[in-house]
Design a protein that fits this description.
The chain is of the alpha/beta class. It is 36% helix and 14% strand.
Length: 489
């Protein structure tokens, strides 16, 4: 059975069709549900269905449309990452011990998308504790990449990226601390935006059974995922803004406009090489292709600059702070083991593995010292963005790879042009934007010879999210964007 023509429509296109009365919100919801039922047996992106309440929300949207209401997401079918609390539905983060936890109220971002008229139909699968670039757990099983079912769709928002690629709604909500928005975008050929740190309040995006209190969790953000750039901007506008429970914390939505509106006016620093890990030839090729296309379009492309912060130092500091944050909740015995292991390190060992060990043992004093380093790094990025409008670089060193469920991630490897590298070291590319808290938009660029999507990320200045989004939109308009996987339309 062929899918409905609306399945791969964007939210922007759906909104126009709804306003023109060419389709109803109930029809869009029914089409999305049919697509899920038709294909998700093989993809397994959807872990919690909420179809009955979704159809009721669609009916309410149709009534609102009939009254002439114009909320930004009115009647648009969408999903949300399992890690967001939705009242009456389980939130597990993949922890088997929490399989019966049911949220009592919506996360703030869920409240905001519902208030904007969205029809939330389902929750999407995640890795345990959101701690992997593969999305599998013992509660809901393994999510597969719609472009190759034997490969990962990414993580930890991998269920959301697979859902979008397979046509399960026009939008999804995800989160990102180690590339968890951008990596799935890259692996599944969709768009994702990591906002400036603190731009979108995260209340209700919390592991169970902890209460949904306001949180300024370091490094972590929530953000939009979609099949076109314009939709990213619409969803970002809906979820952005401070938490009303945290007076004086967070940023108002009055973001500055994009620096430019034409490709020829952008000044771009293009990177495809990292000093600590190579990029696969297919990823370098995608960067070369985009650089050539942008140059022809009049964009000023520069391949290196003394203004660029030291990427190796950035990666080491990121590893230390990230693991320090994650290890803060470790049981006392695990923490003691980490402290003992860090004490045995050679002071001259600055490998990424050593920095992860040091991170697990960070004291408050050490954290403050590291945070001082991050502050200096932010100043360097601020200086760079006086001369450049955006930095384009890989999201990860390879396209999506085959499923690898080795329990100890330190024993996994990633194949880069026939040579194995430590799996966890891939963190360094997402960390380029995460450590300084910069906005970054993941965009699809091309396909590998194996038919796998290859994306890149566009970094922008602090709180200037509209600049990388605008550049992404212009690239999409000029050179194309999302391409649906075979067999889903």
């Amino acid at each position: 059975m062929a899918a409905s023509p609306s399945i791969f429509a964007t939210a922007t296109e759906m909104s126009a069709a709804l306003k023109a009365k060419k389709v109803s919100a109930v029809e869009l919801a029914q089409d999305t549900i049919a697509q899920i039922e038709r294909h998700d047996g093989k993809v397994n992106a959807i872990c919690v269905r909420d179809f009955a309440r979704g159809l009721e929300a669609a009916k309410a949207a149709d009534a609102a449309l009939a009254r002439g209401e114009t909320q930004p997401l009115l009647g648009i079918p969408m999903t949300a990452k399992e890690s967001f609390n939705i009242a009456g539905l389980p939130t597990t983060w993949g922890f088997v011990a929490q399989k019966d936890f049911v949220a009592k109220e919506d996360a703030l971002a869920i409240m905001r998308v519902k208030d904007a008229g969205a029809v939330v139909l389902a929750k999407t699968n995640v890795p345990v504790g959101l701690g992997d670039w593969q999305s599998y757990n013992d509660i809901y099983g393994t999510t597969n990449n719609p472009f190759d079912l034997g490969r990962t769709p990414g993580g930890s928002s991998g269920g959301s990226s697979a859902a979008l690629a397979a046509g399960y709604g026009a939008l999804s909500l995800g989160s990102d601390i180690g590339g968890s928005l951008r990596v799935p975008g890259h692996y599944c050929g969709i768009y994702a935006h990591k906002p400036t740190f603190g731009l979108a309040a995260t209340r209700g995006h919390v592991p169970p059974p902890f209460p949904p209190l306001p949180s300024g969790r370091e490094l972590s953000v929530i953000g939009p995922m979609a099949r076109c750039v314009a939709d990213l901007g619409v969803l970002l506008d809906v979820i952005a803004g401070p938490d009303p429970w945290q007076e004086g914390v967070g940023y108002k939505l009055a973001l500055p406009p994009a620096r430019h509106t034409a490709l020829k006016d952008f000044r771009v620093l293009m990177l495809d090489v990292h000093p600590l890990i190579p990029s696969d030839s297919s990823v370098r090729g995608a960067a070369e292709t985009l650089a050539a296309n942008l140059t022809k379009a009049g964009v000023r492309i520069v391949r290196e600059s003394p203004l660029l912060p030291d990427l190796a130092a950035n990666a080491r500091l990121y590893m230390r702070m990230l693991v320090g944050l994650l290890a803060a909740g470790a049981p006392p015995d695990e923490y003691a083991t980490g402290v003992a292991a860090a004490a045995e390190l050679d002071p001259n060992d600055n490998s990424l593995a050593a920095e992860r060990l040091r991170g697990a043992a960070l004291s408050h004093r050490d954290w403050l010292m590291a945070d001082g380093g991050r502050t200096r790094l932010r100043a360097q990025w601020r200086e760079l963005f006086r001369s450049f409008d955006a930095v384009i670089c890989p999201v990860m060193p390879t396209p999506a790879y085959p499923h690898d469920h080795e329990p100890d991630q330190d024993k996994r490897h990633i194949d880069i042009d026939g040579i194995n590298y430590p799996y966890v070291d891939q963190l360094i590319w997402p960390g380029v934007a995460t450590l300084p808290g910069l906005p970054a938009t993941a965009i699809p660029v091309t396909m590998s010879k194996e038919g796998l999507p290859i994306g890149l990320q566009i970094l922008g200045p602090w709180l200037e999210d509209r600049t990388p989004l605008k550049l992404a939109e212009l690239i999409e308009r000029e050179f194309g964007g999302f391409v649906a996987p075979k067999g889903f339309s």
